[in-house]
Design goal:
Order of helices and strands of chain A: EHEEEEHEEHHHEEEEH
Oligomer: homodimer
Shape of chain A: globular
């Protein structure tokens, strides 16, 4: 499926900023580092930042068994996830036309506990490699005790939408003659040079996955 | 009040990472660019990214009157806000001890419509200056029509907590002898040089607030 259905829940009000294209949605999810995951507990909305991974149309999050968010979500309740990439400040001649350039995805779905051992393993690989592609294979093997101590939750990308803004401010036509400065300030997420663990054994070079990451600045 | 009360709602499970100190919470809020705002609509959790501003213990968000989030929140329903600053990747010798360095604030409160004209004006100044301190005064004056077209919502910081992780990975003691690389990769939000609006009049220099912003890299 290339285009996701537009529903009451995922419809973006400003149509020109919306996309329901699966490839667009996946690309934003793959570039983000943190998903904000919302759920309802005793009538209260709760939102928490989580690292995540994606395999096809499944978003995986994980954590210690005692984590409140995971204890709630594993009951199979509705969840909403947002991933937002901030691309710049948009500064109009009027405060009213200030904005941000961004790419954002909202996902609505029902959370489920991942109890299949193979799916759980694959999900943990995806979450680790999401931070730095190839990192899982550089680590020492996961133990059964570690797998047992970790809860993994999946949310299927069912109802979802991407929303984005790009480009210059859109000022009121009569304001373009004014002497107020207007423009944009690009914003990016910068990865600094890797810092060795203070207890790293002598002579171990920075891992390949991390070298590649440091050369990226997205 | 320097320390916020610890309640069932705002209590952070891992105590060593938690702070209920008002100054700590405010500092994180003031550095963030986007708040993730969650609410419940017809039983469904919804979370959306919003720009925001802070005045004392009030968080303000704003938007067009037709915005779903604002139409819901102005009814005075519970809201949860999260602001997260990502400071780095934490890469242990085991995947299990991978993590992120971050500073994050969660706020639980009841949203209210700001209908007092002076408070609404002050809130819009705070939201604009949050993007770039001093920017409001550089813009052309807000019109009454613009004020009327904008909805402003306040959430009081009542129940809130900060959560943070810093420093190196904490590996299992027996793993420190392994030959796997471990360490951290710092992450920062970088502001690029300002780009003039393509319709900017000749001879207008970049605004002072924006020059200062460009020299910051937080």
């Amino acid at each position: 499926m290339d285009q996701l259905p537009v529903t009451k829940l995922n419809k973006v009000r400003v149509a020109k900023r919306a996309s329901y294209d699966e490839a667009t949605i996946h690309a934003i999810l793959d570039e983000g580092l943190v998903a904000h995951v919302a759920f309802v507990q005793e009538g209260q909305p709760i939102v928490l930042p989580m690292v995540y991974g994606r395999i096809k149309d499944q978003i995986y999050i994980h954590g210690a068994k005692a984590t409140r968010l995971l204890k709630q979500l594993k009951q199979g309740i509705p969840a909403c996830l947002n991933v937002t990439l901030v691309d710049g400040l948009v500064l109009g001649r009027s405060a009213f036309h200030h904005s941000m350039n961004f790419r954002s995805v909202n996902i609505h779905g029902t959370a489920r506990l991942v109890d299949d051992e193979q799916e759980k393993y694959d999900a943990l690989v995806a979450i680790t490699d999401h931070l730095a592609p190839g990192r899982w294979d550089e680590c020492r093997d996961m133990t059964q005790k570690e797998a047992n101590a970790t809860t993994v939750i999946a949310v299927t990308i069912e109802q979802a939408a991407a929303k984005a803004r790009t480009g210059m401010p859109i000022d009121d036509e009569e304001d373009y003659v004014l002497d107020h400065w207007a423009g944009i300030v690009p914003i990016s997420t910068a990865f600094g040079p890797a810092i060795n663990d203070c207890r790293l054994k002598d002579g171990i070079p920075v891992a390949e996955s991390i070298k590649k990451l440091t050369n990226r600045s997205a």
